[in-house]
Structure formats: structure tokens, C-alpha cells
Amino acid sequence: MERYVRLGLVLAVVLLCWPAGWAAADPAVEVAAGRQALQNGDLAGADGHFRAALAESPNHQAANFFATLTGIAMATRSPTFNSLLDRLGVDPQGRDLFNWTADLPRNHFGDVVLPGNAPGSGELIQGFIQAFFPPISAGLGRLDRIQPSFVLQLAANEWPGMEAAEVDYGDVLMLRGACLGTLAWVLSPGAYNLNVDIDKTLSDIQQEISVTPRSILRDYPNLLKLQSPQWLSYGRLLASAAIDAFVAAYQAMAAETDDQSDDLIGLDPGTDVQGVIAGAREFQMALSGPQLINNDFVLDLSQFFVDRIASLRTLLPEFTEEGPPVANSFPDPTFSGILPQLTQWDLVDAFDLMPEIDIWTNMQCGPGCTLTIQAWLGNMSFRDPVDLYLALAVPGMPGGQVLFITRSGVQPGRLDQLASWQPYAAGLRLPLGLDQAVPLLGPLPTAGLPSGWYQVYAFFAPSGHPAFIQRDLWSFISQTGFFR
Known about the structure:
three-stranded antiparallel β-sheet, alpha+beta, 15 helices, about 475 residues, single chain
């Protein structure tokens, strides 16, 4: 009996002498201490206070908001992240997120020079996932606990470098969308092998060793091959959830009735909220099948996320040794059905792959005057023929009227009717890499032309597709002039 009495006395002394050790933390006090630590630039201290507040009150609104931010920021201090920085040769001093001064190693010319053991691009992606995905995922769970009535006043520099602002539920939803979008953005392409030796590639460029898409694909035979198909499934779900969050954020901000000038994130006056939401929903629908986007083009992202392309290399065009792609060489211009309406010539237009032409004229006058037209042709990396149209802008003729030069003579017409004219050199096809002057026309008698200055125009169009020029008449034009 006496032993139990002594034990009771010991416990009583412990409780009396160390009451703080048994007292519950006050979440409001912890949050206030965390906010002060942030203003002082103490990221680790702030994160500890916010976590302590959540340990006592898991649904504390402000604690969940701040712990999301500090938890993600603390990933910059993780062993995984800093190991990557070490291998990249980043100065170990100056890695404070709030006062970052560390830099990559550079030579005396200021060029980045990476160590030989620098991580490849694939390792960097994996390292980012290992360092940042856990805190981002945890942050999403915390943001889910925040209620629509949430409002918080941020003091100036409470998060270093930020002005005073009001944080409300729309900002929380925007943050949620950004977190989900980041996960989707990294996981989706990360499903493919993207590993390239960065330090070797950078060194080759600095030593003026040719680095082109063709050489990269040759040196890395597994590049762009699917290696983690499950990531595509995750990426699609995350992308859809991110769109839901952004839509909810726009709806929440549009419903606000107070002054939004001091909001952390606010809508610009005149923002077409319904238009933005409709556009976002169109992209969301495209994740599951063909969808018309902005009444402009059809997009089907399910071909990427669901059907899964075994290797993105199968979608690439041929490349010249110098680097540029060979026009009209895309094996599938729809990119496996992702852009089902796209054609070869849309890609020629988009990537500016039409031939280069620089023309000049020579007027020779003796007993009579004759005109000779020559051209320097470059970038003739075409797998299929193109047609060449030549036209003269005639003095005194109304705007847009020209004389079309054909093999049988010169005929009047209009530039906007170009598609109805026969090309001068149908099926013009020159060897790859041609870089020389070639005769186009002449000598052509000009006795019937009145005196004056003339402009000579040259147009290219894919063989059999003259409407291509009519659609975008002035994109692929060269001109010169002569006096008659």
C-alpha cells in the first residue's frame, strides 16, 4: 500500500512541476507564431508552428492554408532536392528560398559548366517528383479542409516579397488548381523516357559540336519511349481535377461582392468568366474524346492519355543533318489522332517550312528588251513537289491586279484569284540542301509592256493544293523590281 502512495506522490510532483509539458498547444498562438516566423524569414520555424497548430486542431483554416505553402517550400531543403543541386554543382551557400543567391558553376566567359556526374534530365524529373509530390499531395489534403467562408488578411512581407493582400476561398481554389496542374504537368510527359545527358549536351554546344534533333535521337535510342504508362492515367485524372478547381475558383471570384482590388488573386474588370469556364470545359471534354475547341479546331487528348502512344518518336518528322525538319515528312500529321483535322500543310505553315526564295531580274535591251528572272532557292527540304507562281504588278492597274507569268505568256488577273491560275513551274522539285541560283524564266520579250517600274512576285504552294496560297497569300512571297 505504501508503495502505491509513493507512486502517486511522484506523479503529482511531475504534474505540478512540468505543467507545460502536458498542456495542449493553442492553435491560434501557434499560427500567430508561424506568421511571425515567416516575416522573419524563418521557413522551418514557421512550418513547425503551423504543423503544431494542425496537430491540435486539424481543421484550423489558417493553419491549413499556411502549412500547405510552407510544406511545399520546405521541399527545397529536402535531401533529395539538395542532392540534385550538389550534383549540378550549385553553390551550397545561398540556398535559402527567401534569399536565394546560389548559382550553377560557370567558366570565366559566364557559360554554365556542369560537373561530369550531373544528373540527366530524366533524373531531374524523378528527383522533382520525389521531393515535391509528397508535400504537394499533403497540401491538397489540407486545402480540402478549408471552407468557402475562409478569409485571411496577409500583412506586407508576411510571405517575403509579397504585398499586403486579402486571401479568400477563390485564392484557395486557385492554389488547389495550381497544385493539381503541376502534378499533371510533370507526370504526363514524365511517363516517357526523357533522359538526356545534360552536361554532355551542354559541353558539345559550347565546343561547337553539332547538336541537332537528329543527333539527339541517334545518341539516345530509348528517348521518348513509354516507360510508365500508369502515369498517363494519373495525369489525365489530375488534369481534369485541376480544371474543376480552376472553374470553381473563377465562379467563386465572380460571385464576390466586396472590393477585389486588394485580393491576392482577382479578376480583371471585364473578364468574360463564362467564356473562360466554357473554354476550360472544352479542354476537359477533350481528355475523354474529340472536342471542338473555340469553334476553331478539334482536339482529342484521349489519344494520348487513354490509347497511349508507345513511342513519341513515331510522331516526329524527318530531320536534316543541320537540324530543321523536312517539310511534309510528318508520318502522321494528326499526331495519332490528337489533332484529327491537321494536315501536312498545316504543319508546314505552323513550323514555317516553306522554301526560301530570293528572286532578281535582269532587263536586257538591244533591238528589243527581254526580261530574265533568276532565283536563289534555299531550304528546299521537301519530300513532295511544290508549285511556283510568278506574277508582275503592273503600273496603273487597280490594286491587287497583276500579270501572271505562265509558260505560254503573260495574262492579267488578280492575286486573290491565284488559286485559279496554273503554276509556272508545276512539280518543281529540287534536291535536298540545294543552295544555288537557278533560272526561272527568260529571256521573255517585253515589247508589249509599257514603261515604268514593275514588281515581280514569287509564290509557292504544295502541288495540287493551290488553295493553300489563297488562304495565306502573303506568307510565302519574295519580290524584286525592274524598270521597263
